[in-house]
C-alpha cells in the first residue's frame, strides 16, 4: 500500500480498462434469492437524471484526483540526434523507439506487471496452496490478468514452468508473450481460438519461423476484435445503484456478492460480454468492492460497509481540497510523535508497561476520523485493484514529515505506535476483521455470546429422544451409544505440546497374535458429534469459522471452553471424569512391509488415557532433537545453555514398550512410503517465544492517547529442520487415519470431502535417482536443495473424488480425508457427522448427513476460511520473528543469553527465485532462504546474475514490520 506512482487517472475509473470471468460463471445458478432488478440506462442523461449523473461524476473525479499517476513519458535520445526529446511512448512500440540488439525489449506495462510488489503491498504468495480445485485455463482461452494495477487482455498459449512454479504463457494483442501466474487471471473465456491455430503460435517469447509469425498475427487480430466488443459493452452498462442494492443493511458490516448475481441485476440473461463489463466496473470501484481472493475461483467481491465508504470519502475529500483539519491534526501530532519515539527508545530494554499519560492528549472528532482512517488502511492488500487508502495515507504521512524512500505499511504502523494508538508490540494480524478479539478477554461480546449459548444447551430444556431439535439443543442421547466398541484397558497415548489444551487425538497399538508381524494401529479421535448435532448454533458458527486460530498470547477456538473441557462431555481427551471417553476410532492393519491391508472405523470408548508431551516421548525413545540438529538456537538465549527440564511420567514397562512399538511400526510405514514415493519437502521454520505484556494493550483504540514504554522479553528463538521422533510418529498415525476414513466412506457409498496432492513435477525425470540419494532417512529434503530439480511444486486440492495424496501415501482410488481434528477444524466435524450416518445404517448408507451438492459447496467455503487462517498465521509468525531480528539488530533485544549483532557478519543464503525489480530499489531483488536462521529474506544485488539454488553471502540490512513482515539483506559477492 501507499506506493507512489499508483496507476489511476480518470480513465482508470471509467469503464474501459479491466475485468475477468470464469467459464462456468455465466451459467451458474444464483446462490441467493432473486435480487432486485436494477435500471439499465444506455441513453444520455436527461433533466430527470442530471443530478444523479453530476453526483456520480463528482465522486469519480474525487477518486481519480486523489490517485493521479505521473504521465507515462520517457526521455529518449533518438539515434543520430544530439538532443533530448520528451514524448509519450506507445507501450506496444517501445522496441521500435529504443535501438536494441537481440530479443525484443519488454513494454513498460509488461515490466510494471512483472515487477515484484514493493513494500507498500502484501501479496501473499501468488502460487499459494488455496485448497480449491483449479479453474481450467486451456490453450486458446481468452483471458484477462491483473497485477500491480495493470490489466491485460490476451490469449492463453499453454503452461510453462519457471522458478519451480507453474505459469501461463499469454499472448497479448501487442505481440508480446507474458508469463503470469494463474492467480493473476480474473476472466476466462474458453475455446476462443481453435486448437490448430493456437498450436502453431508456439510458447517462446518470439516466433521462430514464418508459420508462428502468421499464426500470432491472426490471433492478435481476433483478440483486438474481441477487446473492442468487450469495451463497447463495458461503456454501455450502468451500475450506479449496485452498491446500494448489495451493501449490508447494518452500516458497520461488510457484505459479499458474486459477479453472476450483479450481472443478473443489470441484465436479464447475461452473456460473457455482460459478465466482463460487470466485473470490470466492480474491479475499477475499490471504494465499494474488494475482490475476494482467490478471485479466479470465487468470482466474488467483499462489499465495504457504508461506514467505511463514508470514512474513506471524507478523508479523500479533505486531502483533495487541502482541508485545514489535516494540518491541524499534523500540528497536534508532531510533538506527540517526537515525545513517544524518544521515550520508547530510552526504555527499550525495560519491561513493558502502560503509564498514566504525563500530558493529556485530547483528540477531537476530526482527529479521531483521521486516526480511524489510518487504522483501517493497515491491512493486507493485493495489487489486482487500486487501494483507495493510498494517496490520502501518503499525504498524511508526508505532512507528519515521515522520511522514507517509499512510504509504506511499515511506516504507517510505526506512525500509529508513535501516536499512542498502538503498543510497540502491536501484532497487525490480530486486528484484522477476521479475528473477533485481538487478545483474550473473558468479557468480550464474542466470547460471552458463545458461553451463553453453551450454558443454555447444558442446563436448559432437554428434548426427549425422537423429538425435533432446536438450534440450541444437544442430542438427547449419544446417537452411537449402542454400537460403541470398548477398548478396555488398552493404553491410549495422547501426545501433544505441553501447553496444548484442545486434545483431540490419541494413538495405540494392538499386535495380532499370529506371528505374521502384522498389527492394528488405532487413532482415537475426540467425538464431539456424539453430543453436537449439525443444526446447533455453535456447529453452524464453527462451520463458518473453519478452524481454530492460534496466536502466541491467546487462541480463537471453534468451541467455548465450557464445552471443550466439560467433565461430563469429555470432548477434549482425558477430561471426562470417572467415565469412558467417547471417540471415533480409525484402525489400520499394517503388515510387515508397512502397507495398510485392512481397515475399520468404529465409535469407541477408551478408558486408559495417558496425556504426555512430545518432549517426554522423545526422551523415552532416546531421541534428542537438539543433539541431532533438528532444533537449533542460532541466537543463543536462556535455553541454549540451560535446556528445559523434561518431566517424564512414570509409565509401566508394558506401556513404555507400547510406545516404542508404535514408533517402530510408524518407521516401517515411513519406509513403505519411501519405496513408493520420491520426496517430501521440509523448509526450516523459525519460531519465537515471548513474555507477557499488559492486559488490554494489544487492543488498539483511537479514542484516547496511551503512553507505553518498554518491550516484552524474548524467551527463545528456535529453528526446526525436519520431524522429531514423537511428532513424526503421531503424524504417521494421523495420515493412516485419513486414508482409513476415506476407504471406509468408499465402502459405504458415502460422499466425502477429501484432500489430494500430486507428486512433485521434476524438470528431468532422470533426476529421481539423484534426489533419492540426497533425501534423508525419512525421505525429506530441504526446499533449497530440491528446488533446482523441480519444475513445479504441487498444491493440494479439496475434492469429492478419492484421488491420490502423495505426501500422505494415499493411492489414487482410495483417497485421504481429514478426520483427526474435530475440535480444531470444521472439515473434520463434517467428516465425523458423515461417518456417523454410516455407523448407524447398514452398508451402503441410504441416508447421509450431507448431500454431495452440500459438500461441494462447503469444500469451497472451508478452503477459503482455511486460506484466511493460513494468511493470519503467516502474518503472525513473520511479525514476531522479524521483530526479534529488528530488536537484535538495533541492540534492543530483551532476553538473557542472546548474542549481539555484528554489522559485518555474513550469512549464507540460497537463491529461491530469478529476482525482479522493486519500487524505489536501485538494484534487482531476489528471494533468498537463510537456513541457519530459518528465514526467507529479500536480498538486493547489484545486477549480478544469480541462479535458483545458488549459495550467496549476504548482510542483514533492514526489517519492515507490517501485515507480512519482511527482512531485507544485501548481496556480498
TrEMBL record:
Any Pfam family: RNB
Region (Disordered), start-end ranges: 18-50
Compositional bias of kind Polar residues: 21-35
SMART domains attached to this UniProt entry: RNB
Molecular function GO terms recorded: 3'-5'-RNA exonuclease activity; RNA binding
Every RNB domain range: 484-841
Protein name per the record: RNB domain-containing protein
Amino acid at each position: 500500500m501507499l506506493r507512489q506512482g499508483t496507476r489511476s487517472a480518470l480513465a482508470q475509473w471509467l469503464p474501459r480498462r479491466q475485468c475477468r470471468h470464469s467459464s462456468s460463471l455465466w451459467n451458474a445458478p444464483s446462490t441467493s434469492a432473486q435480487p432486485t432488478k436494477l435500471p439499465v440506462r444506455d441513453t444520455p442523461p436527461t433533466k430527470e437524471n442530471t443530478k444523479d449523473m453530476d453526483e456520480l461524476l463528482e465522486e469519480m473525479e474525487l477518486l481519480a484526483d486523489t490517485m493521479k499517476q505521473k504521465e507515462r513519458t520517457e526521455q529518449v535520445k533518438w539515434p543520430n540526434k544530439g538532443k533530448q526529446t520528451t514524448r509519450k511512448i506507445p507501450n506496444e512500440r517501445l522496441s521500435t523507439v529504443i535501438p536494441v540488439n537481440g530479443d525484443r525489449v519488454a513494454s513498460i506495462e509488461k515490466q510494471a506487471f512483472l515487477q515484484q510488489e514493493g513494500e507498500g503491498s502484501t501479496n501473499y504468495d501468488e502460487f499459494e496452496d488455496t485448497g480449491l480445485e483449479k479453474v481450467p485455463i486451456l490453450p486458446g482461452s481468452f483471458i484477462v490478468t491483473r497485477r500491480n494495477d495493470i490489466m491485460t487482455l490476451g490469449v492463453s498459449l499453454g503452461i510453462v514452468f519457471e522458478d519451480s512454479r507453474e505459469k501461463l504463457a499469454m499472448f497479448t494483442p501487442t505481440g508480446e508473450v507474458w508469463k503470469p501466474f494463474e492467480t493473476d487471471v480474473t476472466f476466462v473465456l474458453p475455446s476462443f481460438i481453435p486448437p490448430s491455430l493456437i498450436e502453431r503460435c508456439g510458447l517462446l517469447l518470439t516466433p521462430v519461423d514464418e508459420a508462428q509469425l502468421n499464426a500470432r498475427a491472426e490471433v492478435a487480430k481476433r483478440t483486438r476484435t474481441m477487446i473492442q466488443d468487450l469495451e463497447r459493452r463495458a461503456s454501455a452498462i450502468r451500475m450506479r445503484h449496485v452498491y446500494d442494492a448489495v451493501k449490508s443493511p447494518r452500516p458497520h458490516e461488510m457484505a459479499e456478492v458474486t459477479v453472476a448475481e450483479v450481472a443478473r441485476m443489470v441484465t436479464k440473461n447475461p452473456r460473457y460480454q455482460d459478465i466482463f463489463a460487470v466485473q470490470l466496473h466492480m474491479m475499477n470501484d475499490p471504494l465499494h468492492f474488494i475482490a475476494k481472493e482467490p478471485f479466479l475461483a470465487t468470482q466474488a467481491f467483499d462489499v465495504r460497509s457504508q461506514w467505511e465508504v463514508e470514512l474513506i470519502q471524507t478523508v479523500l475529500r479533505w486531502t483533495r481540497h487541502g482541508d485545514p483539519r489535516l494540518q491541524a491534526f499534523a500540528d497536534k501530532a508532531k510533538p506527540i510523535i517526537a515525545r513517544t519515539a524518544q521515550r520508547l527508545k530510552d526504555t527499550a530494554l525495560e519491561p513493558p508497561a502502560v503509564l498514566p499519560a504525563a500530558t493529556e492528549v485530547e483528540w477531537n472528532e476530526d482527529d479521531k476520523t483521521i486516526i480511524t482512517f489510518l487504522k483501517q488502511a493497515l491491512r493486507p492488500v493485493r495489487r489486482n485493484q487500486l487501494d483507495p487508502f493510498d494517496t490520502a495515507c501518503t499525504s498524511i504521512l508526508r505532512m507528519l514529515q515521515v522520511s522514507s524512500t517509499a512510504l509504506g505499511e511499515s511506516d504507517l504502523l510505526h506512525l500509529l505506535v508513535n501516536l499512542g494508538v498502538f503498543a510497540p508490540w502491536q501484532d497487525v494480524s490480530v486486528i484484522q476483521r477476521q479475528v473477533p478479539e485481538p487478545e483474550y478477554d473473558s468479557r468480550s461480546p464474542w466470547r460471552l455470546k458463545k458461553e451463553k449459548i453453551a450454558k443454555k444447551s447444558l442446563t436448559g430444556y432437554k428434548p426427549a429422544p425422537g423429538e425435533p431439535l432446536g438450534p440450541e439443543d444437544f442430542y438427547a442421547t449419544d446417537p452411537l451409544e449402542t454400537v460403541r466398541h470398548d477398548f478396555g484397558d488398552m493404553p491410549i497415548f495422547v501426545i501433544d505440546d505441553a501447553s496444548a489444551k484442545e486434545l483431540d487425538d490419541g494413538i495405540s497399538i494392538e499386535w495380532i497374535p499370529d506371528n505374521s508381524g502384522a498389527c492394528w494401529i488405532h487413532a482415537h479421535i475426540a467425538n464431539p458429534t456424539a453430543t453436537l448435532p449439525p443444526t446447533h448454533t455453535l456447529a453452524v458458527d464453527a462451520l463458518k469459522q473453519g478452524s481454530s486460530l492460534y496466536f502466541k498470547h491467546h487462541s480463537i477456538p471453534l468451541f467455548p471452553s465450557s464445552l471443550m473441557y466439560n467433565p461430563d462431555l469429555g470432548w477434549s481427551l482425558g477430561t471426562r471424569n470417572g467415565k469412558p471417553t467417547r471417540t471415533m476410532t480409525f484402525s489400520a492393519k499394517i503388515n510387515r512391509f508397512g502397507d495398510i491391508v485392512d481397515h475399520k472405523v468404529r465409535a469407541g470408548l477408551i478408558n486408559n488415557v495417558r496425556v504426555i508431551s512430545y518432549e517426554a516421548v522423545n526422551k523415552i525413545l532416546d531421541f534428542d532433537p537438539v543433539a541431532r540438529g533438528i532444533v537449533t538456537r542460532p541466537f543463543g538465549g536462556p535455553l541454549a545453555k540451560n535446556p528445559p527440564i523434561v518431566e517424564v511420567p512414570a509409565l509401566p514397562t508394558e506401556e513404555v514398550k507400547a510406545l516404542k512399538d508404535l514408533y517402530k511400526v510408524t518407521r516401517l510405514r515411513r519406509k513403505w512410503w519411501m519405496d513408493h514415493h520420491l520426496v517430501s519437502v521440509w523448509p526450516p521454520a523459525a519460531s519465537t517465544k515471548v513474555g507477557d505484556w499488559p492486559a488490554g494493550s494489544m487492543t488498539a483504540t483511537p479514542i484516547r492517547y496511551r503512553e507505553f514504554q518498554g518491550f516484552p522479553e524474548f524467551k527463545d528463538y528456535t529453528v526446526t529442520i525436519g520431524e522429531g521422533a514423537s511428532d513424526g510418529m503421531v503424524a504417521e498415525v494421523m495420515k493412516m487415519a485419513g486414508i482409513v476414513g476415506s476407504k471406509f466412506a468408499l465402502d459405504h457409498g458415502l460422499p466425502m470431502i477429501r484432500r489430494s496432492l500430486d507428486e512433485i513435477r521434476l524438470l528431468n525425470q532422470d533426476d529421481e535417482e539423484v534426489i533419492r540419494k540426497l533425501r534423508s532417512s525419512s525421505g525429506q529434503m530441504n526446499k533449497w536443495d530440491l528446488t533446482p530439480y523441480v519444475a513445479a511444486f504441487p498444491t493440494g486440492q479439496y475434492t469429492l473424488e478419492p484421488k491420490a495424496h502423495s505426501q500422505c501415501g494415499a493411492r489414487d482410488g482410495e483417497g485421504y480425508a481429514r478426520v483427526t481434528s474435530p475440535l480444531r477444524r470444521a472439515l473434520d466435524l463434517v467428516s465425523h457427522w458423515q461417518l456417523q450416518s454410516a455407523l448407524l445404517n447398514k452398508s451402503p448408507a441410504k441416508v447421509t448427513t450431507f448431500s454431495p451438492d452440500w459438500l461441494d459447496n462447503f469444500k469451497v467455503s472451508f478452503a477459503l476460511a482455511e486460506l484466511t487462517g493460513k494468511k493470519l498465521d503467516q502474518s503472525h509468525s513473520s511479525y514476531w520473528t522479524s521483530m526479534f531480528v529488528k530488536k537484535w539488530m538495533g541492540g534492543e533485544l530483551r532476553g538473557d543469553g542472546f548474542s549481539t549483532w555484528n554489522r559485518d557478519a555474513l550469512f549464507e543464503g540460497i537463491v529461491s527465485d530469478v529476482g525482479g525489480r522493486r519500487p524505489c530499489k536501485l538494484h534487482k531483488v531476489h528471494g533468498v532462504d537463510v537456513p541457519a536462521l530459518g528465514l526467507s529474506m529479500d536480498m538486493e544485488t547489484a545486477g549480478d546474475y544469480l541462479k535458483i539454488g545458488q549459495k550467496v553471502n549476504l548482510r542483514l540490512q533492514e526489517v519492515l514490520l507490517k501485515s507480512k513482515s519482511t527482512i531485507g539483506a544485501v548481496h556480498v559477492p
